[in-house]
Amino acid sequence: MTDDIELVRNFVKESDFSDEIKDALLRALMLEKLNKPETEFDRLVKEISDRRTDEN
Amino acid sequence: MKISNVEIKNFGILHDIEINFEADKKNIVFLNASNGGGKTTFQSALAWCIYGVKPDEEKFLSSYELKKIKIGEVVKVSTKIVLDPDQDGRISIIERAQNFEKVGNSEAKLIGNETLNVLQRNRGPGALTEPHPAPAAWLKKFFPPRLQGFFLFDGEQMTKFWEQNVKLDIESAVKEIARVDLFDSIKKKMKELEQTKFKKISKKGGGKAELLEQQRQEEVKLLEIEEAERKQTKESLNQLREGFKNLSRFMGETQNHKDDARELKSLEGQEIRLRDDIDRLKREIDFLVFSSGVVASLALKAPELFTQVAKAQQEDWLPPPFEPERVRSLLQNKECICGNSVHSGSSEEKKLHNLIERFQIASIAGKELDETHKQILILINTLKSDSRIIKEKTDHVKSLLDNQRTVRDKQSEILERLKGINANEVDVIARNYEDTHRKILDLEITEKALGESVNKRLARIESLDASIKDATKNDKEAIQLGKEVQVCKEIATAAEKIYESAIEQVRSKLEKAVSQNFDKVKLGGFQTVITDDFEVLTLKDGRKTSLSEGEKMLKGYIFSIALRDVINLNLPLVVDTPFGKLGAGFRKMVAEELAILMSGKDDKNDRQLIFSMHDLEYTPLERRYFEQAKPKEMFLANDPKAPAEKSILGEGIDPSWYLEGHWREFANAKKTK
Description:
The complex is a heterodimer. Chain A is mainly α. Chain A has one domain. Chain A contains 3 helices and no strands. Chain A has helices at residues 4-13, 19-33, 38-55. In chain A, helix 1 (4-13) packs antiparallel against helix 2 (19-33) and helix 2 runs antiparallel to helix 3. By secondary structure, chain B is an alpha/beta fold. Chain B contains 16 helices and 15 strands. The longest helix of chain B is centred in the middle third of the chain and has 71 residues, at 347-417. Chains A and B meet through helix 1, helix 2 and helix 3 of A and helix 5 and helix 12 of B.
């Protein structure tokens, strides 16, 4: 069986979302796979949001 | 992936068994046993070792071993499975064990937790064996619990494989394969984060913003309820539409039959009504004829009566114009109306007395005659009226009988057209068709209304979001939180979309794989479709077609094998009583096709099939079906030294099977040869 995380990564990669959202989703998948707490997800969201602010 | 060896110790009736499956040489293995021999225990030991499914307490620790040990002694129950090769081409050894302590003559208690180890090594000499650091996770990855039903199962269930409840299993398997649970979890986490952040934003905006946030929360809750309802409605609609498609197809094929069936039904009703009307009218006519008969017999005397009446009228005594009382008064006054005196004893007085007497008699007869005459006239009129009514009713009956004949002719005509077709069934389906259509229309209205409501609620939430943001527009932290909310929303939406797309991709792959495999064993352009709600349909020329019991079972096996191909996970197929109650003809079909699927003729030689059968299921006939695949035969049988407590393993066929039934005939025939 293809490594399960590899399989879901492919689903994300093959999707039509922006690279930013694909990247966010891939990182969220890793966090979920590693059973990371909600604070880690929050950190990810903040990071993306900050990056957007910086870019603007 | 193949199971090369299984070692079971102190597990139920399998006290100490080591089975070598010769996986390097054999793809098909029969581990047969008579009832009570240990077939189910073998499956149970595998299910415990791989999935951790504990057996019932009384079937766990071997009663034979329990008897042997002393109170206070500890005994280990274990199952060890060697996979050679495993999914990665290495050798993996899975061992699960549980200790028991004997606490009474026939009682034991669990000691500590069960242990699970997975040891691995590369193939070839001199390779090191290493324990896997996370055995449970390794097992979950290569033996997904949601696919257990497609790895270890009871063949008795196979004919029911395509019933409604299998949809849930297939849905579960597809989700397992697509690993979509991860996306679902991410979506939920992002939604939760979004809510938390909104609460924080509202706190920044003070009382008004908090109030708006409360409203927002209520709207979100209602939105969730409505979305769930909408989803449910959509699912129901899909189911109904699927059913409607089949009904429509049937109706298309039998449009004429439907009309005929309808008309036949209507004619039946008409015929019953006509029959009732005719019966009622006939009863009324009978009554009228009877009553008129009495009248008519009286009326027979009418001509004579009429002659007498005419004569009486001529003689002016009908009705008598004479008034005797007045004449008597004249006689008492001794004076006639002409003015002359009437003396007693005079001839005038005598004449008047005679006149009174004569007219008195005439009066009685005249009155009676007159009365009778009048009655007869009434009777004659009644007779005339009855006769008219009888005629009318008779005419009506005639017309009804004509109608009845026409209806019966039409019925015969339709029945001729519907020869061989169950008109009632057609009618029921036609009604079902209309009923389903009505339900679909109703649900479409509900779904539309829910959709509109969801959109309105989303707009309200958006507006509340804007109001909350507006109330906190001067708060930098709130602005930042607002941006984070946006990120949460985008990630959640992406996770949801990919969830749906992943399921769709797997569903479609599975559909293709089942179609291709089924096509190999059943020629004729059959196509398999897995619907959006995971129903597996077999189509021929685009139309849903039904399969025989054997074909259904075969397709169940094909689905299980195709599933392995789609997920690229070659789990062995371990089946207890693989043919169940399947008839002999179907067994041949299933067995031969399974032998082909497992023989590697379709470029797959790493498949493994382990069947456990009893003597009535595995006969010399079934053996012949699998002959070409050169399977390995083994048996489990009760140990003669402890028959109810312990089984032993043997190669080939259980010798006791040769003592009766098909196997005895087989042995005798062999001897004769």
